[in-house]
Amino acid sequence: MLALPWIAIFLAAPTTSLFNLRWLGLALLTVGYGAALINGQLGIVATLPIALLALAAYAVSPQRKAYFRYLGHALYLILAIALCLHKLPGFQNVLVIDAQRFTADAQPFTMYLNLDKPLAGFWLLLVLPWIRPVHDLLRALKWGAACLLATASIGFATALLLGVVAWAPKLPSDSGIWLLNNLFLVTLTEEALFRGYIQGGLGRLLERHAHGATLALVIASLLFGLAHAGGGWQMIVLAGIAGLGYGLAFQRGGLLAAWLTHFGFNALHFFLFTYPLLELAKH
Q1: Which residues contact 93 (CB under 8 A, 6 or more apart)?
Q2: Residues 214-268: pLDDT tens digits?
Q3: Which GO terms describe its biological process (predicted)?
Q4: What is the 3-state composition of the chain as percent helix, strand, coil, each rounded to the nearest 5?
């Protein structure tokens, strides 16, 4: 039953209007999180932020007055930040990788299957259709592949120069769960927030500005870099560079292209380089 939120986020993912299954995604999301509540992965106190997300969804509806929509977006942003930082009680995220070193020189890596952070992405995908501009599938795949190649070339070259990773091809035993988690609960959530919502929203606000799209891309990339400040200044730089690549993919091929670029970059990092960073990487 706990797999249902994963299915829900897939169904809520970027699609054409013809295949938009948002209502089915919402139903599966409700059943999945209900099962988590029954099974003890979700405390009763966690229903409060979920209820507030529902209130925010009501408030941002185009039928509401402008000031009400602004309040709804403000409420969502507060909740999204708290959820992404795991600051709200009641979410018993499942530990699946516990301080594992994938190579002898790597920092230990811990991973949870989060129930809190993905809610920020679920909300965007289900509530705001404009974060998912419709693009031809072939165009999305083309730009996703092109931006992945460029982002990986620049990003990993920079990471090697900074001395935070090394060449380290590997196939860890936890690869399957890592791939599923990164595809559905990490990269899609982050791309919905940083590219779809922040970059897309700024682009809408600045659409009359001659360089509005570029400004939106740069600002979203800077914020994405700062969101990785916990890894040190090197991670801010590297995430900022990666954010530019994901943002370009979003501009040219929509959310699907950005999602594929981000997931591809993370997969290359996981399988081909030190993951997450070298033990001796200085912060």
Answers
A1: 41, 86, 112, 113, 114, 115, 116
A2: 999 999 999 999 999 999 999 999 999 999 999 999 999 999 999 999 999 999 9
A3: CAAX-box protein maturation; proteolysis
A4: 70, 5, 25
Distance CA 189, CA 9 (A): 9
Helices 233-272, 212-226: axis angle to 10 degrees equals 80
Other CB atoms within a 10 A radius of the CB of residue 146 amount to 17
Tokens at 52, concatenated: 């507030």
Q: Where are the domains of the chain?
A: 4-272
Evaluate whether 120 touches 88 at the Cβ level (below 8 Å): no
Answer yes or no: are the C-beta atoms of 7 and 118 closer than 8 Å: no
Q: Is the peptide bond before 62 cis (omega within 30 degrees of 0)?
A: no
Residue 160 burial class via C-beta count within 10 angstroms: exposed 0-12, middle 13-18, buried 19 and up: middle
Handedness of CA 185, 186, 188, 193 (dihedral sign): positive
pLDDT, mean of residues 176-199: 95
Q: Tell me which DSSP letter residue 61 carries.
A: S
Q: How far apart are CA 164 and CA 274, in angstroms?
A: 8
pLDDT band at residue 281 using 50, 70 and 90 as cut-offs: low
Banded pLDDT at 44 (limits 50, 70, 90): very high
- CA dihedral (133, 83, 198, 220) positive or negative: negative
Q: Is 111 helix (H, G, I), strand (E, B) or coil?
A: strand
**Token pair 């979410």 is at which residue?**
91
